[in-house]
Amino acid sequence: MAKQIVTLNVNGQDYELFIHPKTLLVEAIRDYIRLTGTKRGCDTVSCGACTVLVDDAAVKSCSVLAVQAQGTKIITSEGLEDEGKLAPIQKAFLDEGAYQCGFCTSGMLMSCSGLLRENPNPTDRQIREGIEGNICRCTGYNSIVRAVELVAKGTYKEA
Ligand code: FES
Ligand code: FES
């Protein structure tokens, strides 16, 4: 199949890409748009490092073709902040030390962000279920759960 023009809206900006129809969304974001916060950890839809928001829902971007994401609003970890001010979930991750090597962090942030958009007051169990598709090889799960709980409690406000 020949390459084609695909338009993606990422972090509020339209990008016209000339790509193969089989290009994955994660490839389009990282290799064409050059937003490398989104990580590629497994390519088997297992690790969650590639998670982004598609129309406010957390989606593993290695499980979607870029062409399928046309007409949606995509948010990556770079798009969470607002005019240089960190989003509440980013502040909570920082304060709670909810990262170690950082490889899983952007995917975790996006899954947590998707969870909070869908359910602003999740229980401990719902938070753990919400991030069950994200693997942290440094095993910092408790601090991640605590960060989400603090945002849900309103400890961190929008900038
Ligand atoms: S790279 Fe997509 S789930 Fe691992
Ligand atoms: S912080 Fe290292 S993989 Fe999660």
Characterization of the model:
The protein has 159 residues and is of the alpha+beta class. The chain is 31% helix and 16% strand. It has helices spanning 25-32, 88-96, 105-118, 124-130, 141-152, and strands spanning 4-10, 13-19, 51-54, 57-60, 73-75. It has a five-stranded mixed beta sheet, with helices on both faces. Helix 2 (88-96) crosses helix 5 (141-152). The longest helix has 14 residues, at 105-118. The model has no long low-confidence stretch (mean pLDDT 96). The structure holds FE2/S2 (inorganic) cluster (2 copies). One FE2/S2 (inorganic) cluster (FES) is lined by residues 40-43, 45-50, 60, 62.
Summary of the model, kept short:
The protein is α+β, with helices and mostly antiparallel strands. 31% of the residues lie in helices and 16% in strands.
Main beta sheet = 5 strands, mixed
Overall pLDDT level: 96
Number of strands: 5
Helix- and strand-based class? alpha+beta
Strand and helix map with partners:
Elements: E1 4-10, E2 13-19, H1 25-32, E3 51-54, E4 57-60, E5 73-75, H2 88-96, H3 105-118, H4 124-130, H5 141-152
Parallel strand pairs: 1-5
Antiparallel strand pairs: 1-2, 3-4, 3-5
Helix pairs in contact: 2-5
This protein binds FE2/S2 (inorganic) cluster (2 copies).
For this entry, give a set of tags:
about 160 residues; alpha+beta; 5 helices; single chain; binds FE2/S2 (inorganic) cluster
